Amino acid sequence: MSSVMFACMDADTLGGTQRVTHTVAQGLAERGHDVHVVGLHRAESPFRYVDRPGYRHHVIHRTPVGRLSRLGARRERRRLAELFRELGAGFAVLASPGVVTRLAPLLPERLLPIGQYHGSYEHARGSWHLGSVRSHYGGLEKAVFLSEDDARLFSEHALLPNTWAIPNPLPAWPSRTAELTGHRMLGVGRLEGVKRFDRLISAFAEAGRTAGEDWELHLIGEGDELERLRSHARACGVADRVVFRGGVPAAEMGREYLRGSLLGLASEHEGLPLVLGEAASYGVPSVAFDVSGGVRSLILHQETGLLAPPADVPALAAALAGLMASVEERRRLGTAARAHVESFRPERVMDRWEALFEQVSR
Predict the structure, then answer these.
(1) What's the CATH number where 315 sits?
(2) Which of 57, 149, 36, 39 is nearest to 98 (CA)?
């Protein structure tokens, strides 16, 4: 089996990129690969993703992400060279544009570079990411994106000849599904500005006025926006029906999905938001803003869930109200959603990674 190194700027912060990195690393390690997860910097608040990892974990700098001094850059090169000597022939999966620019020039020939991008094309084109991907990913063995839609857009607009699509894997596949009879909507994610839970609260309040005011919105996550969101819920008149749950351990999230009947996502941008896939695996349908190819790969509009135009809160509210009012429609979409995300089951995503490695090795 091959050596596989996954490198992130910071591999241990609570976040989507880190979670996927550890999930894939563990899956490939269980298949016999020699897997290493590398964080270039220490996380300020490290989060443990895998209780018994089958891979090795390395942190290059003891300091959080920030500008490197010349001494720090020399120390980084020395420590990476020591690490590379431990690895046999295989692959270096570089998780972001910043990691690509720092590590790709340092890799030995026996480690074939694969660039990953965990965001959407829509997000990249609004930031420096698109220029960096265009400049640096084309010279790698493969450039991996989260959906076929994103891979096509990067191929066309970033002029990449080497695109590939691999979705993020679900952490597990549940044996039970939700009944969808309760009146509990879920919102899951970090309480940060980009997630726009304020818009979800506004849409929930508006939907409740037409679909019934006995529904609750349970927000699961922690973050700096907590007090502002509490104030916003009071301003919308739903402070008694918006429940801030705080962080819930990953091992207990299955119980939350089983108790939910609907999930809402109001982010400004997303790559491939796994909360949509996790909810679907429990038969829970979702309503989300149509902000990326990754979202569209998880929600087929009116088939497995509902999409609203980005930032259109009235449209989001109308979509939520329709599902809040009909358990039959929730069950129709939820059943189709679970069938649709079968392709995101962990073993199927690991198959796609190994198929990529095989093609790169030819």
Answers:
(1) 3.40.50.2000
(2) 39
